Amino acid sequence: MNKFKALAGGLALGLALTAPGMVMAFPDGGHGPEGHHGHHGGFHEGRMLEHLAEKLDLTEGQKAQMEANREAGKAARKAAREEMHQVHEQLREAIESGADQATLDDLAAKLGRLEVQKMQYMHERKVQFESILTDEQKAKLEEMKAEGKARFEKRKEQWERKRDQ
Q1: Sequence-ordered alpha helix ranges (H) in the chain
Q2: What is residue 148's three-state secondary structure?
Q3: Which of 87, 139, 140, 142, by CA, is between 20 and 30 Å from 127?
Q4: Rounded Cα–Cα distance for residues 152 and 160 (Å)
Q5: How far does the chain reach from its first CA to its final CA, in angstroms?
Q6: How far, in Å, CA of 14 to CA of 108, rounded?
């Protein structure tokens, strides 16, 4: 059991050390200027939803439900981001001040719980979104996911070949 705790603490600590830059750089929810993330044009939830609405040919009622669902969770998402930011900051300060391992493990465990909650919330949002779709739209969404996964795998293979040269 101690090995599991050490592994879990180490994983959470590693995550804590790699992710805070994004949280601190974009404290408003992961969106930089004009909602962009990084150098590839980035992720913007509103644009993604518009794209999905167009590709899936959503009805006005479905679009309204999708927007209502998004707005309903806005405050909770903001609170979760702020809590994540606070724990990252606490962990950074603890490391810089030379805190003991038990303190670091406690913060890492808290961070891990927050990450799990975030994943659960994202899953709930996915299920909620899919619940407003027709069977035909669900099939189209699955097709879009498969195409996206294929594009990702192709880029990954290209990157690996380039890396190995």
Answers
A1: 2-18, 20-25, 45-55, 60-72, 74-96, 101-131, 135-164
A2: helix
A3: 87
A4: 12
A5: 42
A6: 9
Residue 154: exposed, middle, or buried by beta-carbon count in 10 A (0-12, 13-18, 19+)? exposed
Summarize pLDDT for 11-39 with one digit per residue, the tens.
444 444 444 333 333 334 444 434 444 44
* Whether the Cβ atoms of residue 140 and residue 58 lie closer than 8 Å to each other: no
pLDDT, tens digit, 9 for 90 and up, residues 116-126: 999 999 999 99
Place of tokens 């659960």: 120
Please write the tens of the pLDDT for every residue from 147-165: 999 999 999 999 999 998 8
Task: State if pTM tops 0.70.
Answer: no
CA angle 75, 79, 82 (to 5 degrees): 140
CA distance 11 to 115: 12
**Which residue has 């993604």 as its token pair?**
48
- Alpha-carbon span 26 to 43, nearest angstrom: 12
